[in-house]
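Hello, quick one for you while I still have it in my head. A protein chain has come my way and I'm curious about its shape. I'm sending you its amino acid sequence along with the backbone structure tokens. I'd be grateful if you could look everything over and explain what you see. Here's the protein in full, and shout if anything looks odd to you:
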Amino acid sequence: MSQYPRDEFDKVPETSTRQGVHRERLIPARSSGVGLIITVGVLALLVGLAAYFVLPRLGIGEGNASPAASETPAVESSEAPADAPEETPSPTPSSSPSSSPSSSPSSSASETPSETPEPSPSAPVADRSQPVVVFNASGISGLGAGISARIGADGWTTALVGNWAGTPLQTSVIFYNGEAQRANAEELSALLGIPTLSESPEFSNVTVVAGPGFQ
């Protein structure tokens, strides 16, 4: 006798051979369904592992990389035209001669003003029309007349010839009054060889005083 309480499935003849039929069928049915699920799961796991590890080694997945390889030449072809324009400027030297003539006139025009010398103020010119006074301070007779004839031959006019009555001089001197007579005094200095020039307002005309040692 069983220790469990009796239920509706136990209401069968005790002599029947079908005792416990329902319980025996339920247990194998449940165990077979769980086993099928486990089997399918294991097979799916194996297929996934095979696809992840085995197929890349066989080269089956390389077909996906082919588009990338096909795109690489496209990139290179696109870069080739970019290089071509860099080579095209090489003919530019032919255009440079046309630009150089246009720039050279401008540079020459800019250089011309710098090269032209600025006009320097003209030096005062001697005026031989102004009369000259000649004094003899050397004590040599006739020296004043000789100086007058000497400057007269160079185009000068003598206003007065006489003997020096001022302070005794140690050398010959040419006196002039202001810058207006300076050019005449310098001209007579070069002509007579008298290097000493003296500006003095006491003389109205350029005055040549021949002192000792005048030649």
About this structure: Confidence is low (pLDDT under 50) at residues 65-82, 93-103. The longest helix spans residues 21-58. DSSP finds five helices and five strands in the chain. Residues 21 and 175 are 169 Å apart (CA to CA).
